[in-house]
Amino acid sequence: MVDAALVEKYRTRIEGQLDLGEKFEDIPYSREYDIFKAEQYPPITQLYEKLCQKSAQILKITVTPKDAEKVAPAIRLAHLNVTPEGVYALTYLVTFVLLAVFIVLGIILFNLFIMLFGLLACLAILFLLPTVPKQILTSWRARASDQLVLAVLYAVIYMQHTPNLERALKFVAEHMPPPISLDFTKMLWDLELKTYENAQEALVAYAETWRGWDNSFIDSVNLITSSLFEPDPQRKKELLDQSVTVILDGTQENMLTFAHNLQGPMEALHMLGIVLPVMGMVMLPMIGAFMGASFKSWQIILLYNIILPLMVYGIGTSVLSTRPAGSDESDIYKYIQQQYGAPKPIIFGRQINISPRVLAALIFAAGMIPVFIYAASLASLTPDKLETAIYGLPILFLSIYVVMLVGLCVGLYYYWSVAPLMKVKHEVEDMEQEFAATIFQLGERLQEHKPPEQAILDLEESMPQSKISNFFSVIVDNITKLGASLKDAIFNERFGAIALYPSGIIKSTMSLLVEGAKKSPEVAGRSLITISTYLKTVHSVTERLKDLLADTVSAMQSQVKIFVPVISGIVVGLATLTVGILRNLSTQLQTIAPGGAGADASTAQVSQTGLLDIFQTKFATPPYLFQIIVGMYVIQITYLLTFLLSGIINGHDEMEKRFMLAKNLIFATLFYALISVVVVVLFNALVAPVTRITFTEQ
After folding, report:
1. Which of 2, 63, 431, 460 has the lowest tally of Cβ within 10 angstroms?
2. Residue 65 and residue 159 in one domain
3. Contact indicator for 503, 431 with CB cutoff of 8 Å
4. C-alpha angle 589/590/592, rounded to 5°?
5. Based on the domain organization, do 99 and 50 belong to the same domain?
6. Quick one: three-class SS letters along 7-73?
7. H or E element, residue 186
8. What is the pLDDT of residues 572-613, one digit of tens each?
């Protein structure tokens, strides 16, 4: 009879000697799953989940199997904590509430157009709102796709020295950033719940969800699972190596195809988002002067500040959703924040102990004080003087100031949120470029049967002075001076080298080195050489992609920084010129109308023809309001095009996106304000002689 206590005693002792790490049954996957999900999902997605849950409680409905099948896969794959009933309940509630609001507004304002527009908007919501889970899944997959290659690589390298698929999945879940880590954590959780019988079944099922998105990932997974049944060690290694080659080749082909197919969508975006709206802006002043009674300001706002930005956003997100996997531009924003804390604004070399968002809001509030003072002064004017002030230059210049203040504050917020960390990021990127060649040399030394500690010592002595050499110098000092083990020399929370160098790729690579060294130096060496090959290949593909996109990116950058601000500023000046001339002509014509100061009997014929009513300037959009509409559109289109450009160039790199937004918003806003002021002043000088024209009685 076997003594259970004795078996448990020796099992615990053997596990401690082998340093197998955490036991699967002791890992709280449910807690990690919730934490990963809370960190990965933006607040808007979490709000959507809460709204769906509340709607399901308010409106009890039964969804047909056909409708449920439309949203259930997206809900499951995007890890949304909602039900199909909740999705459709929210859709029906929002549709009903908005329809009631538009009907009430239409009755109160006696406006049939509002009711018609509300009906169309509610129909659009009825069809579009159920697609939100699919849109969230698309965004999720777009971010996760860049991490597929590295996930396959980590799994393959781990299985080369430890052919255990469960532990390989665990290694990927621990060392990959979200969102791909959440998918692998979910796989492990499904294994715990016995949703799948084994890790092979769970991985294959997950790979099938990428069919149509990245078929090379499916082929790689099939090769990995096939290696589990291969008895020949050499053949097993060939299958694992082939899985990495397959996904790398597929990645390169997909990225090159994406670059070639990008010209069409970018040209369409240029026409719909820039050329046509700007051409429309040129016509708006004349339309407002001659059709002011039927062309309202809110319609311009609806078109330029809501509909057009939504169209540009839709086209931009559809373009980014087609961007394939393979970028090596890892998002280290959160990782650096964990190491150095949330960034604080730095002004004139001094750090301000306040969040960038709060500081930008305070600057905006302080900057709006003159606007509130001027608005209060208008309240005491008579109607005639108030109308003159509304169409005057002071309020126009004040509106330009407001637009400039909005753009600057938004740009400063993005600048302060990343500027203190950009130096660290660039240093990390330089290290990662040197890291690929360095780990290849280290892998070669390990292939010579040297222990990892000795191989690192030899490498550190032969390396020239560089950023990455400092990393290995810290490891050598920890080993030689502190007597630390290889694992502690790298990962110890107090003195480990990785704590000084916040790089995800370096951290995960050194984890593979430590894991491989448990098997043999040769296995660890092969792992490092494979990673080095991967890094060099992806870097070359990324540089090739940037070369192919250089012309498109350069054209879009010039449009964002120069074309849109210049044309928009000129349009504001034209609007001021047009409205000023037509208002003066309308006033002078009224003086010769029947009963006017300069009227005679012959002017009755003019009045009967309706020529005196041709100018509807009293209904025209005031220049200051038109300028605000145009200025806000400049800010919106600059933001959207920069968001698109950053996604195409840098993938989902949050720091580069914020830094590019800061530069473009600040430059475009200032340039637009400068052009607007200069053009308004010049055109006002041109219109001055016209405004002095008077009609006198002959």
Report:
1. 2
2. no
3. yes
4. 70
5. yes
6. HHHHHHHHHHHHCCCCCHHHCCHHHHHHHHHHHHCCHHHHHHHHHHHHHHHHCCCCCCHHHHHHHHH
7. helix 180-192
8. 888 777 777 776 666 666 665 555 544 454 444 444 445 445
Tokens of 688: 């001055």
**How distant, in Å, are the alpha carbons of 307, 311, 629, 634 from that of 126?**
18, 19, 29, 31
Query: Model pTM?
Result: 0.73
What pLDDT band is residue 688 in, cutting at 50, 70 and 90?
low
For 437-485, what is each residue's pLDDT tens digit?
A: 888 888 888 888 888 888 888 888 887 777 788 888 888 888 888 888 8
First to last CA, the chain: 130
Q: Are residues 458 and 516 in the same domain?
A: yes
Can you tell me the distance from the alpha carbon of 143 to that of 179, in angstroms, rounded to the nearest whole number?
Answer: 7
Range of the domain at 509: 428-537
Higher pLDDT, 527 or 151: 151
Angle between helices 180-192 and 148-161 (to 10 degrees): 50
Task: Round to whole Å and give the CA distance between 420 and 31.
Answer: 33
By the 8 A CB rule, do 493 and 500 touch?
A: no
Q: How many other β-carbons are positioned within 10 Å of the β-carbon of residue 470?
A: 15
Give per-residue burial for 337-361: e unless 16+ CB within 10 Å, then b: eeeeeebebeeeeeeeeebbeebbe
Mean pLDDT of 214-225: 90
Residue 171 backbone dihedrals phi, psi, to 5 degrees: -65, -45
3-class SS of residue 575? helix
Most confident of 15-29, 71-85, 582-596, 643-657: 71-85
How many of the other CB atoms lie within 10 Å of CB of 365? 11
Once rounded to an integer, what is the mean pLDDT over residues 156-164?
A: 81
* Residues 435 and 497 grouped into a single domain: yes
The answer to whether 160 and 526 have CB atoms below 8 angstroms apart is yes
